[in-house]
From TrEMBL:
Family of the protein in this entry: Belongs to the WD repeat DDB2/WDR76 family.
GO terms, biological process: DNA damage response; regulation of DNA damage checkpoint
InterPro entries cross-referenced by the UniProt entry: WD40/YVTN_repeat-like_dom_sf, WD40_repeat_dom_sf, WD40_rpt, WD_repeat_DNA-damage-binding
Role noted for this protein: DNA-binding protein that binds to both single- and double-stranded DNA. Binds preferentially to UV-damaged DNA. May be involved in DNA-metabolic processes.
Any one GO cellular component localisation term in the record: nucleus
Annotated region (Disordered), positions in chain: 28-128
Superkingdom of this protein's organism: Eukaryota
GO molecular function, one term: DNA binding
Coiled coil spans: none
Residue stretches of biased makeup (Basic and acidic residues): 56-65, 90-122
Keywords: DNA damage, DNA-binding, Repeat, WD repeat
Ranges of biased composition (kind: Polar residues): 28-45
Name the UniProt record assigns to this protein: DNA damage-binding protein CMR1
């Protein structure tokens, strides 16, 4: 076949290089040059050299034990053995068989326990099985330094956030908008390889300590602005770090061993003592983790039998927990009592996805459900229902029929009810307990006031909430700070973090396409610093938003 001009020039260059290497006496390199006629055969139609597959010799340690037939495993028996030798041989064989059976049963039991929820107290090695000693020490020191600091408790304020005139309110909103629009990406870190399910921002002002929960049950503690360690290459040169920082993150497994059955659905800090963090999981339990990991351990405060807990909330007193679940139930846990004293009410025939406690009037419970309703319940009437017996693994449950009968006979138990067009994914009270924002799959954010006579929204904003299967549900989260104009954060399907006012005005849209290419579905904001927000996505990447001067 006739060579092209390029191939002819290539052949001449190869011949020239061969001749030069032979003159220099470098004969071992000559063999590496091949002409067209020497090119190895190619795979048919691929144009690529065929690769000779060489079987890799495996190490002995890589070889798993091979199964053998009973015939091959049969030991050789001495035909001249005496009766006593035969008896001893049979006894040894029986003892060996029993030992192997015991080992098999122990292995099966360990595997079974690993698939079950853990109800016992868990120490540091159990909580952080894959962490190095220095990481455990770092996290312990970080949490201990926060616990030793002074964080003033923010008491709920009963008065609504109002202004004497419209101009004053406009000025307040304009000032807040200016502060929020100055926020940029201050730190980025892919703290897990799994989807982010929940988040909470610790109130400490000396550190940006953000807690995230992922799909496989890990509690991820991110010290977002912690200085990065110096990393050097083989030549001792310092490798430049990312301009967006990254901070440091730590992984804890407070619930079920890493599994999709242990997704962390909700994270809350103790209302009284912010040095305790509570987490709920799809393993049907709620646990408490103290910041003092050296002397304390993770303990279970509530559990049910295979009922997924979707959300929970705590009143300002910090003594109680109200938890919603996938079967339409609402459970009450008094932390001053034994775990078996909890009670549960079936309030819906479908999932109750979210529960929120009014911070000023804790007896008012806001419950959102997949039955397309948002309801306000008076917890005092629920807890007044006659006591019933439960089992060791399941709290006493008032079924839906009993609850409906009780409501019909006791006016004031269900105070308000507003239907939505589709499933209500979340509804929350603002920090002053006067306003409500709800998210729904009908792509609307609804704003309501605490008026039981008319629970209709006073404002409704279009917002894409169709997250689908692979993105965590969008939930509008109020800023916990009661001293600023009420506003909340919510993810946007266009990869931004949106901040709205309590009256439906878009205050800021935080985004950066050069860094963010996924939906910031899970959001939270700092309880004491206005210009602080965090978000997480389905790939496990988390973002800290802060003023440009601190980015």
């Amino acid at each position: 076949m006739k060579l092209t001009a390029y191939e002819q020039e290539r052949e001449r260059q190869i011949a020239k290089n061969k001749e030069l290497l032979e003159q220099l006496g470098i004969t071992e390199q000559v063999s590496t040059f091949t002409t067209r006629s020497e090119t190895p055969p190619t795979k048919s139609g691929s144009g690529k050299p065929a690769v000779k597959r060489v079987k890799r010799e495996r190490e002995d340690s890589e070889l798993a034990p091979r199964r053998q037939s009973q015939r091959l495993r049969k030991e050789e028996i001495d035909p001249n053995e005496s009766p006593s030798q035969k008896k001893r041989r049979l006894a040894d064989a029986e003892e060996k068989r029993k030992k192997e059976e015991e080992e098999r049963l122990e292995a099966e039991e360990r595997a079974r326990r690993q698939r079950q929820p853990r109800h016992e107290d868990l120490d540091i090695p159990t909580l952080m099985p894959d962490s190095e000693d220095y990481e455990i020490q770092e996290l312990t020191n970080t949490l201990k330094s926060v616990a030793e600091g002074s964080i003033p408790r923010q008491l709920p304020v009963a008065e609504p956030y109002v202004f004497s005139n419209t101009d004053e309110e406009k000025a307040e909103v304009a000032a807040l908008k200016k502060r929020l629009k100055n926020m940029k990406i201050a730190s980025v870190n892919k703290i897990t390889s799994d989807r982010i399910y929940s988040s909470a921002y610790h109130p400490d002002k000396s550190k940006d300590l953000i807690f995230f929960g992922d799909k496989h049950g890990r509690l991820l503690i991110w010290n977002a602005l912690a200085p990065q360690e110096e990393v050097t290459d083989e030549d001792g040169q310092v490798i430049p770090q990312s301009s967006t920082g990254g901070g440091k993150s730590y992984k804890i497994e407070p619930h079920f061993p890493v599994s999709s059955k242990s997704s962390l659905s909700c994270i809350k800090f103790d209302s009284i003592n912010s040095y305790n963090v509570f987490t709920s999981s799809y393993d049907s339990s709620i646990r408490r983790l103290p910041f003092d990991l050296k002397t304390g351990s993770s303990e279970e405060v509530f559990s049910m039998d295979e009922v997924l807990i979707n959300s929970f909330d705590m009143p300002p007193t910090g003594n109680e927990i109200w938890a919603s679940d996938e079967l339409g139930g609402l459970s009450h846990i008094d932390l001053r009592e034994e775990k078996g004293k909890a009670r549960r009410w079936e309030l819906s025939d479908k999932k109750t996805g979210c529960v929120s406690i009014n911070p000023v009037k804790p007896h008012l419970l806001l419950v959102s459900s997949n039955n397309r309703t948002l309801k306000i319940w008076d917890s005092r009437n629920l807890t007044d229902m006659p006591l019933i017996e439960g089992s060791e693994d399941t709290p006493p449950t008032y079924d839906l029929g009993s609850v409906e009968t009780y409501i019909s006979e006791n006016e004031g138990t269900r105070l308000a009810d507003y239907p939505h067009n589709k499933s209500v994914t979340a509804g929350y009270w603002d920090p002053r307990g006067t306003r409500i924002v709800s998210t729904c799959y009908d792509d609307r954010l609804r704003y309501k006031r605490k008026t039981f006579s008319s629970f209709k929204p006073f404002c409704s904003v279009m917002h894409d909430c169709q997250t689908g299967r692979w993105v965590s549900m969008l939930k509008a989260q109020w800023s916990p700070n009661p001293d600023v104009y009420p506003h909340f954060t919510v993810g946007n399907m266009k990869h931004s973090l949106d901040i709205f006012s309590c009256k439906g005005e878009l205050l800021a849209r935080l985004q950066d396409p050069t860094v963010i290419s996924a939906v910031q579905a899970v959001t939270c904001s700092h309880p004491g610093i206005v210009e602080r927000a965090a978000s997480g996505n389905a790939s496990g990447k988390c973002i800290l938003w802060a003023p440009a001067s601190e980015a």
